[in-house]
């Protein structure tokens, strides 16, 4: 065999090898996309889904961080930075839906580097917020020609001193973004259908679904879980004295204070009217009473100001704890009813207090009812 022929065979073999490697990578990436799609479809919890999207994009695109702006579920007026917040103010950063940034991303329908976006945006006042996130790529999240979010990829891990994105990577992140956009839309619909639009707390039926699952898990893992029920004292006087808008203000403010005094793993709901419930995961009597008392005292000391009127608002509460040995409740209804009976005792004993429901409380309640 001639030397020339041998070199041709070698070059051909090298070409076949390179093509094989490329196809194997594409097959692997397609398999990854299928796994990502399954992951997104199985996760309907809004916060968990966004966290999952962030970590997947960080791994796939080799970036040190990522953030997601999502169109506000309630007002639909802003893109809210859901994956990060200013811990000094506890407020999440926002971009108005009308920002030129959104128009540019929707019209381009492709990821843009920060320099490209800045060049097209000109002196847009909102570009500084994006710049503070140290972005390398901004990816539109588009659902049915509707921009429902923006994915911001941050500092990139350089590969062979090249931190740019290849065309193949751009297509890959757009595929992930398309899957993420559909998943976010589905999770948002579930979030809205299970959320009270006034207080932004969970609805009663959703709370009961979570409580059912929590009771089963607590039984299997021999854990304690707690339910707290609150009721605003003399709520009717706010409506009668200042009008129903004042009553709505009190409801929203109390709900916000309850939410701020719970952990991320806990769930608060608007049970109905001026009643609220909270589910505390892995919490016994001592922990639950501390939380309930903290919420009660926070509301008692809070200055509620409505139309220059300073209102004094108090709440009463009842606490019940699931314990497989001492309080093996048979249903979510029974569990909540116990907390409700504790609440009733708080009301009966002067309001603005929290009562723990146990056998002694049950006996006292029966005695009080018998005297009536």
Automatic annotation (TrEMBL):
Domain GGDEF as annotated: residue spans: 223-359
Q: What class does this enzyme belong to in the EC scheme?
A: transferase
Gene Ontology molecular function: any one = diguanylate cyclase activity
Quick one: a GO cellular component term?
A: plasma membrane
**CDD domains named in the record:** GGDEF
What Gene3D superfamilies does this protein's entry cite?
3.30.450.40, 3.30.70.270
InterPro entries linked: Dguan_cyc_DgcA, Diguanylate_Cyclase, GAF-like_dom_sf, GGDEF_dom, Nucleotide_cyclase, Rev_trsase/Diguanyl_cyclase
What the entry lists under SUPFAM superfamilies is as follows: GAF domain-like, Nucleotide cyclase
Name the catalysed reactions.
Answer: 2 GTP = 3',3'-c-di-GMP + 2 diphosphate
In the Enzyme Commission scheme, what number(s) does this protein have? Answer: 2.7.7.65
- Please list the GO biological process terms of this entry: cell adhesion involved in single-species biofilm formation; negative regulation of bacterial-type flagellum-dependent cell motility
Pfam families, per database record: GGDEF
Superkingdom of the source species: Bacteria
Which NCBIfam families does this chain map to? dguan_cyc_DgcA, GGDEF
Q: What protein am I looking at?
A: diguanylate cyclase
